Amino acid sequence: MSHDYKMVQWNPFKKRFDVWMLSGIALYLVAFVALTYATQPAGNSFTPIQAMIRATGTLAFLMLSFILCIGPVARFTHRFKPFLYNRRHIGVVTFLIGLVHGGLVLLWYHGFSETNAFVSLFVSNPEYGSISGFPFEVLGFIALIIMFLMAATSHDFWNANLGPGTWKALHMGVYVAYALLVAHIALGILQFEKRPIFFAILGTGALFVIALHLISSIASLRLSDRIGHEGWLRVAEVHELEDTRAKIIRPVDGDAIAVFRDGNKIAAVSNICRHQGGPLGEGKVVDGCITCPWHGFQYRMEDGQSPPPFTEKIATYATRIIDGTVYVNPKPNEPGAPQAPSEIGVSA
Amino acid sequence: MSQDDFFIGWAKTPEIDRRFMMGAGLSIITGTAAVGIGIAARQRPVGPGTWNMGEVREWRGIATAEPYGMLRTLDLDGTERTALLGCQGKCGVSAKIGALAGKPVVVKGSLIQRGRHTMIAVIDGLDWIREDPEGSVDGLAFPQPEPIMDVSLEGEILDTKCWFGAMRPAQGKTHKSCASLCIRGGLPPAFYVRDMKDQTALMIMTSGGYGHNKDLLPYVADPVAITGRLQRLGDLFLLDAPVSAITRL
After folding, report:
1. Domain that holds residue A186
2. Phi, psi torsion values for B219, nearest 5 degrees
3. Backbone angles phi, psi at B237, to 5 degrees
4. Which CATH fold would you assign to the domain B146-248?
5. Cα separations (Å) of A11 from A8, A17, A277, B13, B14?
6. Fewest C-beta in 10 Å: which of A43, A115, B32, B73?
């Protein structure tokens, strides 16, 4: 909802989540470094910085993999919605861990010489024409830049000022960053640590992320309902609509529509939340307002406007009920335009 | 889903979500830590090198600038011992030895050591080396390289400072950029070989008796084969080969 922009809109849940997250990160780093030292042969030991480079690198990749899994999993179970609600925090912290990793690499491997460390990053290994010899550090650097842009613009201020479309497009860059990181690992550390288990972990992780997205996409398409009736789209029988919940309709042309039932009222709005593009149709009517499952943004059923003092608006759609069947007009009204809900028991 | 089960971040967390998050949080943290531990426990051995940076002391001996900056000194048991010389960062010091080459000197720095391989990382500033008025060249003068045999070997070109202990690990693709910077900066390059029986050997690389530098950069940290002449220089082994004798594997 529109509000005074603060660095973080803290609430008790976010605080508890962050405590858990930071505790987990600390546990991982301590465990990784401790095992790195404990399992080396007698007399062998990593330098502390190189142990931290590996600890932060592996952690950042695991966290980014988890972040990418949150969205698809949340489509299958509402229980994952709390992770989705805090995904932004995980993303920013993942970037910071990646930044520590990159900073230590820049200092340790590219510093302490007359050559500028940033120049060294791009020229010390000139084998750009080779696959196995490719300067993998550059891939990680580009991924880190993308993650920086995402972390820097993750705040609602940027979402509001860039516009939802631009903001969403920018943040889809996470997939580019992830692909770059997979290549960064495959062409970097796995050219040195060549045990099959490491290739298996990387391959399994990346394939799991890809498979989840494919399955999620297919499941979303199943929600489509394109059966028309005089230009209107059939939604469902009235009794098939669960109270306070929605059915998502995907017209051949245009954005997906969320058709909600609240008691004996039926109303349709855009399925796309104005905040971060969350799927409103997976939300719920709470206190008479359609509530986004991602961050709890709310819109009134009758006009698609956030209740005062908030000012967000989404498109509304006309609905009608004929012989117990709900239909929606796929032509959207202007965002925030009043559209009286259909009432069950009252003919169209 | 009951009326109260819908999660809204700014509202009271439903009990079912609270319980799920507790279980899922513990599982994810435990699982991630387990993966991390599994990875950490299977890393390659990084070698037994050490660098006692805080222990700065002086060494007496004979300095030379060719093929690289080196100091020939006496070990505790009275045998001759050759220590390579490097700066605190990624640079050699041969160009700074100047007129002191071949003379008795006192060198100040900290020791980098891996087995019998040693390097002195000299302190910053100008007073890292001075002539030793009480020293003598007798018995410590650098001998001429002594040919042993012609060899063809497969292995990896790396920089001595990192491999001796400045970095751990100090080999392979992840260390390639660092090794390139070190060799470009004048630190002695070495050829590291490991045979089928896990026997290893390290030879300082030269070309026609002089030191390599930027000419080696295209091959650093990659698997390569070299045909050259194995030589002995006191307690050091040298592999003398021009860059044209190096082929990428």
Report:
1. 12-221
2. -110, 0
3. -105, 135
4. OB fold (Dihydrolipoamide Acetyltransferase, E2P) (2.40.50)
5. 9, 10, 22, 11, 15
6. A43
Displacement of CA A270 from its chain's centroid (Å): 20
CA separation for the pair B229, B224 (Å, rounded): 16
Sheet strands (E) in B165-222: 189-194, 200-207, 210-211
Q: What are phi and psi of B108, to 5 degrees?
A: -115, 130
Q: Is B82 exposed, middle or buried (0-12, 13-18, 19+ CB in 10 A)?
A: buried
Q: Determine the Cα–Cα distance for residues B97 and B93; give it in Å rounded to an integer.
A: 7
A64 and A154 share one domain? yes
| Co-location of A120 and A263 in the same domain | no
> At A279, which CATH number?
2.102.10.10
- In angstroms, the CA B131 to CA A269 distance is 87
Rounded Cα distance between B3 and A244, Å, is 9
Rounded Cα–Cα distance for residues B13 and A253 (Å): 38
Q: Which of B3, B27, B25 is nearest to B14 (CA)?
A: B3
The interface predicted TM-score of the complex, written ipTM, equals: 0.94
Q: What dihedral angle (degrees, nearest 10) is formed by the CA atoms of B60, B66, B68, B72?
A: -20
CB pairs under 8 A between A and B: 178
Beta bridge partners of B146: B232
B50-131 with B146-248: one CATH topology?
A: yes
- Interchain pair A120, B181: CB under 8 A: yes
Reported as a single tens digit per residue, the pLDDT across B174-204 is 999 999 999 999 999 999 998 877 788 999 9
List the 151-210 stretch of B: residues with Cβ below 8 A of A: 167-169, 171-178, 180-182, 184-185
Contacts of A323 (CB under 8 A, 6+ apart): none
The single residue listed with the structure tokens 């435990």 is B30
- Asked if A182 and A273 sit in the same domain, the reply is no
Tracing tokens 């997976």 back to the chain, one arrives at A282
User: Which amino acid is present at B230?
Assistant: L
Q: CA angle B18-A21-A67, nearest 5°? A: 90
Task: Give residue limits of the domains in chain B.
Answer: 1-43, 50-131, 146-248
Contacts of A120 in chain B (CB under 8 A): 177, 181
> pLDDT at position B22, please?
93
Which has the minimum average pLDDT: A289-298, B2-11, B14-23, B24-33?
B2-11
User: What count of residues does chain A have?
Assistant: 348
Tally of domains in chain A = 2
The CATH code belonging to domain B50-131 is 2.40.50
| Under 8 Å between Cβ of A102 and A142 | no
The answer to the question of residue A7 being in a domain is no
Packing angle, helices A136-152 and A87-110, rounded to 10? 140
Q: What does the pLDDT look like over B17-61, one tens digit per residue?
A: 999 999 999 999 999 999 999 999 999 999 999 999 999 999 999
What residues of chain A lie within 8 A of the CB of B7, using their CB?
78, 81-82, 85, 293
Distance between CA atoms of residues A112 and B86, nearest Å? 12
